[in-house]
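Weekly puzzle thread! Below is a chain. First person to post its structure in token form gets bragging rights.
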Amino acid sequence: MPKVFILPWLPCWVVGVLLSLALPFGGAVYWLAAALLCVLLWIWRRQPWLGWVLAVLLGCAYGVWRVELVLAQQWPPVVPQQAVPLVITVATPPQQDERRVRFEAQAYTENGQRYRLQLSDYRNREWPLGSRWQVGVRVRPMVGEVNAVGFNREAWALANGIQGVGGIGQVRERLPESAAAAIAWQRYRADLSARWQATAADYPLGAALMRALSLGEQAALPQVAWQAFRPLGINHLVSISGLHIGLVALWAGWLMRWTLRWLPWQPAQPKLWWLAAGVAAALFYAALAGFAVPTQRALLMLLVLAWGWWRQRHQTPWQVWWTALALVLLFDPLSALAPGFWLSFGLVAALLWAGSGRVAERGQHWRAWHTALRAQWAAALASLVLVAYFFGTVPLLSPLVNAVAIPWFSWLLVPLALLGLLLPWQTPLMWMAALAEYTLRALMWLGEYAPVYAPAQPPWPVLLLGAAAVLVLLLPRGVGLRPWACLCLLMLLGFRQPLLPADTAKITVWDVGQGLAVSVQTRQRHLLFDTGTAAATEMQLLPNLRAQGVRGLDVLVLSHQDADHDGGAAILRQALKPQRVYAGQPQAYADADWCAGGLNWVWDGVWFEFLTLPVASPLGDNDHSCVLRVVAGDKAVLLTGDLGVRGEAALLAEYGEDVFSQVLILGHHGSRTSSSPTFLRRVRPQWAVASSGFANAYRHPHPQVVDLLALRQVALYRTDTQGGASVLLAEGQPLQWQPLRPRVPFWQRKPLRGGDG
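Winning reply:
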């Protein structure tokens, strides 16, 4: 392949495709028009740089076009009013917890339209892999939470081919299963999974780990295991990716090479036989894993690498890397929305970069060890920036743990997991599950004590400087920029958000779905009012607090005992170690005090006061909610948890005009059981905030409350349609809510635009 095709045309096209995912507006025709204009300019001026610009524009046009095709196939962006009759085929092994069963399914509407949906059954019924059903589903588009950082549900759905999400109704009817080869293969995978599950009685963790390594059933692992993997930086070892696919291909190629040595005849091209065996084994492994999107991406990379190895005299490693990157983006530009895409290609690029321009060391033994150590150093340094950006934390023990865990998983556990599927006896599977059990228990124990560093989210210039510093540090010795590179890297890791002025409070309402989490920040102090659910805390709240530079909490307030308000309390208390915990029901928590009415304090010139009243009769958890009022300058905000109408009346009877606040966080997420006309008249808010999940089953905020606010000319901010936001309370400063993510790419629906819901 001519070098001119690889450099610079192909990289420019790749850059264009990647840039298309960050554009604020779509319209492939506009980018094609820009490309045509560039062609005309090139004909007129004959400048080489115009060719590079043309390649970038063509990449942008292609990326936008492909994304718009995918968006057109998504479930319509409307709030579901009733269940839709669907015929579904269970496509992934069901994942069950205490609340629901969740799985992905191929769904067909009555008019024959096909969607891939993520479905939940809150009745915890059985859904065998490959089974077909007639069901009613309340389907909604995949619209997730939007904060400054954290898990982007829309990006995840697009990268994994999910076109909608829904809850299954009570009525279902099983249909005859298809005799298609795909369904038969799903049944075969289910039978293999059942063999590992037979060992779960004695070794539950080991069986789950072997199912994950052999069949791609990551959902089989308990949540506590994943929580232990993160501080160790070994999530990639459990998720079938390029490492596993490449390893299986390498094993198969080696076995074919060993087998050919014992044959009485030798093929004319033995390398072709090695490649064929490796590719076939990789395809089989990918099929066992259900051809998940990351597995498809790994297969494409492997095919390009195999082709490059076959033509190693004609292709450099960098040319092969660029070709693999371009092929993956050509196949699926949306794969770049997955962090695994950047980690896979980024780490390989770091290894190639670290090995460039070096003089070969003398001595074969020393060369092997030196190469291995340099590769480990390059991977650890490159992952520092990538992991910090995507996940907000840096696992400090990751290089050391991976140096031991990668060979252990690669050369022992993964081969055993695949070998166990081929053996007809159950006893060897028990031994393998036992080995996996002890491995996982050791990792979970280590994860409890592994230190984690959480840098604040830096601006883009600092992030780019950090990436450039990594490139400089990976260069051979003799480059004089190493001290400056170390300084830039320290700037990245040590970045801190600027302090607030005195007498100022920053109120942030986090988008935690159907739940509530509000943080109050002064110049030197941090208070958190509620946590949302455990999942929201782990994927949204905690990463965002760390991105703001919060290393610890001064006060944690748990309004009442309800999962959408205190579900993440244990996670927050372990991660941020709050100095004081106040709760409306303190008996439900260890070392918690009651948020008694009249309790007050001052931080940095900002007044805090609880207005909580004791509940004389058992009215339920909601009316036990803590009530907190925060005053900064001439501005105040009132937080009432899930306080109902009776609790509001008691509050007014006790405090009267003292409840006046310009900002009201609506009680009970905007339910009609709260926010009575009398209460709103006494509070007199300028702004009301409803924290709720998109298309939630409770219809929060309720239309009755929305109409009442509009009647009283109270501006309403909704996290379900607008995402998280913050506002400053300060003397003489107008109230203006600022979205936590003010600029979103064109493919992201939330904040919802126009008539989207």
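Puzzle host: Confirmed. Bonus trivia for everyone else. The chain is about 45% helix and 15% strand.
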